[in-house]
Hints:
- α2 (68-84) crosses α6.
- The longest helix is centred in the N-terminal third of the chain and has 22 residues, at 101-122.
- The strands form five sheets. The chain has a seven-stranded mixed sheet with strand order 14-15-16-13-12-17-18, sandwiched between helices. Strands 9-8-7-10-11-19 form a six-stranded mixed sheet, sandwiched between helices.
- The protein is 39% helix and 21% strand.
- It is of the alpha/beta class.
- The relative contact order is 0.14.
- Residues 152-156, 179, 181-182, 212-213, 216, 232-233, 236, 239-240 line the site of adenosine-5'-diphosphate.
Amino acid sequence: MTDFAPLIREANLVNGDWIAADSGRTLDVTDPATGSVIARVPLSGTVETRRAIDAASDAFPAWAAMPLGQRVALMRRLHQLILDNQEGLAALLTAEQGKPLVEARAEVGSSAAYVLWFAEEARRADGAVIPSPVAGRKMITTRHPVGVVAAITPWNFPSSMLARKLGPALAAGCTVVVKPASATPLSGLVWGYLAELAGFPKGVVNVVTGSAREIGAEITANKKVRKITFTGSTEIGKELLRAAAGTVKRMSMELGGNAPFIVFDDADLDAAVNGAIIAKFRNAGQTCICTNRLYVQSGIHDRFMARFAERVAALNVAPGNEPGAEQGPMIDSAALTKMEEFVADALAKGASLVTGGARHSRGGLFYQPTILTNAGPDMRFTTEEIFGPVAPVYRFDTEDEAIAAANATDYGLAAYAYTQSLSRMFRLQDRLEYGLIGINEVLIVSPEAPFGGLKESGLGKEGSWQGIDDYLETKYTCIGGL
Ligand code: ADP
């Protein structure tokens, strides 16, 4: 496996300097597959965060004023550096996060793609000349970077979640303070290293690791931060929204999900089973767009279950860096305990175990790929996000019933359905209350498309032309007396 040691940075990046926390205290970064410590990063708090925000604020005017062509050239260099280091970055990601190397490689590829996409979008961030309703006036809109952006990212996609924030922020002319998740800070810190290699001016990209509560409190209270972009749980997202109200910042929120996966009688069975495996067990079920609830129509139910169970039972559970690994470890012991609680709750309420249902014989943080059938609305996972390799299956009879059940949640991020009926596809598009809908397809995320949840799953979009919009202010100028 590619050596990732040269990509490890064990210090904060502030104003171009790699520095420890003032206290000298550190946080251990562990490999969830083995429990061994792979690095130590600064345990920073308020003071270090304020310093990073000051650096970003000082760097902002020159960065925003840099000719667009030069900014785009830097972005392209960053894109190329990610590709040149793809293997090392993927190995680093697997080491701290646990996902199979093939998935880590794909994530890093996606990070590169987002950087390139936003470098291109920056060139199209134009304004307008508005037809004036009266004589002697020009009415013009122009677009400007919002200013200092703070990006708070989760541990499940520690590279690409940052790409979707750093990409548009830098392309738009904003400077950034990054706070990566404490479980996976290395894939965040390495962005600082790559930005440095690419030649971004000091202070444009700053990275601070440490206490989420202290860093979050400073970011939300500090007037110099003009925008917060957050990916994480709905609970923390709400806290940040409340805390930031005092300084009226722009807020982008990519929060939790509770994705339904609906299999209709007329589905292509093989395609539905393949889709169900990927949408449920990718990253050990730890993605916000992972299937939470499988709804399977009565006519196909038994055939689907037989094939699904056979495939799931055969999934290769192994450390992410082992060839052929299909499901790695969970991120931490709390995640493992949560799986046990969900399964116990469901079994107590009448669900039946089809496969799995316990910790894996490999020990440590490995959990068996699990299927439960006879799932019902009173079970915890009907309303709560599972975030792990447990697949509850609910049986249904009519399309109306399936859509009503699918929508009966406060979340609205991703939904999937398998059907061969074209008219049903369009009905689903209209009626599913979700920001992302995959029909006969589950790998639907791409830089060209808007990613974002409805209801309590979020605010704003990442990706597509809309993904840069949140980083730009519109000014309207009216010139009269012409
Ligand atoms: P996840 O379960 O995906 O880690 P969280 O919402 O707990 O979801 O965390 C997402 C990110 O938010 C992480 O970087 C985490 O450290 C950070 N975070 C957690 N609590 C806070 C907080 N109070 N203020 C700011 N950031 C926080």
